[in-house]
Amino acid sequence: MYALCFDGVGETVWRSVPDPGIQDPEDAVVRVDATTICGTDLHIVDGSGARIAPGTVMGHEGVGTVVEAGSAVRSAMEGRRVVIPCISSCGRCPSCRHHSYSQCTGGAAWQLGNLINGTHAEYVRVPFADFSTHPLPDEITDEQALLLSDVLPTAYEVGIPPGAVRPGASVAVVGTGPIGLAAILCARLFSPSLVIAVGRSRPRLDAARTFGADHILTQGDDVAERVRSLTPHGQGVDLAIEAVGSDQAFGLCARIVRPGGRIANTGVHAEPVSLPLQDLWNRNVTVSTGQVDTYTIPDLLVLLRTRRIHADGLITQRMPLHQLPAAYALLADRGEELVIKIALLRQTSP
After folding, report:
1. Contact, 152 vs 315, CB < 8 A?
2. What is the helix, strand, coil percentage profile of the chain, to 5?
3. What residues contact 150, with CB distance under 8 A and at least 6 apart?
C-alpha cells in the first residue's frame, strides 16, 4: 500500500510500505476511505510537536471499512463502516472505565500516527478495535464522520462541559482554527447570549461568523478592552476558550474572563505558558485543561444525524488520498485562502 511517512523534521514522503496485518487478536485492519490533517500533524513535521520515530505513518483521524478483524473482535467486524477516533481505548483499565481514554494504562491512548502507524495511508491497523472504532449509519457521509475523529470531540469535551456553558452565558473563543470554529458550533448548542471570536485570519474570522459568532475581533492590543465592552457591566465573559496553544492566547483569556468565570484550554502547548495566578485566584477564576478522550463520539454522531450540529462547513477542501503531501503544504501555507479541514478521499493511488 501507499502511505505518508515521517522521515524526520521537515521530511514526509508518500511511498509504498508493507500492508498492515493483525498483530493482536483485538486488532482490526481498516481500509481508509477518508482522512484529514490535524494541526498536531503539522507540528510533528515542523519539529515543534510530539517526537515520533522516523518511518512512522502519519495521521490519527479517519473513516473507513473494516477489511480484517482479529479473532477476539466482536463488533468491529469485516465489512463494517467505522469512524476511527484519534484516541484508542483498551476499554478495561481504570482510566478507560471512567471514559478517560487519553490516559489509558492498558496500551492504548494516543497511538495512531504517534507510537504506531497512522491513518494517512490506504490501510491502517487499529488496536483494541471494539473500543477504538464506532459504527456509522448509512446516512452519515464520510466527510461528516471525519469530523468525529478529533475536531468535534476536542472542541466539545475540552471546551464546553469544563466551561459550564449555560443558556444566556457569554463565551469568547480565542483562536479561529478548526478547534476554535468547532467550539463555536458546540457552544451554540447551549444557547449562549453572546459568542465572540478572536483570531488573526480574516477568512477564518468570516467563517466564525457563519458558524455562529456574534462578534469577530482581530487579535491586537485592544482586544481585551473590546471584549469587556461587549459584556454585561464590562466584567468580561463567563467562559474564555483558548484554542491556539500559545502564551499570548492564554494570557488574553486571563484578561477577558469575568470574576467567577472559567478558562477552558483546548490548545496544544509545546512551550511553557505563564499562569498569572496573581490575577486569577482572587477573582475566583477556574482554569481547566485536558486532552480529548473522544467519549462523546456517540452523542455527537446523534447531533450530526439529527442536524443539531451543522458542521459541514468545517471541510473546505477535498483532495484524493495520494495528494496528502500537497494537502500538508496547503494547510501549512494557506495564505488568504480559507482552509479549515481538508478531506483526503480514497481513490486509486499511483
Report:
1. no
2. 30, 25, 45
3. 38, 60, 61, 85, 86, 292, 294
Q: Which residue has the cell 483485538?
A: 26
Give the DSSP per-residue string, 52-89. --TTPBP---EEEEEEEE-TT-SSS-TT-EEEE-SSB-
Nearest to 162 by CA among 254, 256, 258, 291: 291
Determine if the pTM surpasses 0.90. yes
54-81: per-residue pLDDT in tens?
999 999 999 999 999 999 999 999 999 9
Give the number of residues written for the chain: 350
The interaxial angle of helices 151-159 and 297-305, nearest 10 deg, is 110
pLDDT over 70 (residue 349): no
What residues contact residue 252 under an 8 Å CB cut-off, 6+ apart? 174, 198, 219, 223, 224, 240
Query: Which residues touch 16 (CB under 8 Å, ≥6 apart)?
Result: 1, 2
At what angle are helices 151-159 and 178-188 packed, to 10 degrees?
Answer: 60
Cα–Cα distances (Å) from 38 to 146, 171, 288, 327, in that order, read 11, 24, 22, 11
Nearest in space to 164 (alpha carbons), one of 43, 81, 285: 285
- Kindly list the strands in the beta sheet with 170-174, ordered across the sheet, starting from the edge strand earlier in the chain: 215-218, 194-199, 170-174, 237-242, 257-265, 286-288
Q: Which value, in Å, is the radius of gyration of the alpha carbons in the chain?
A: 20
In the numeric block, the cell 447551549 is attached to 190
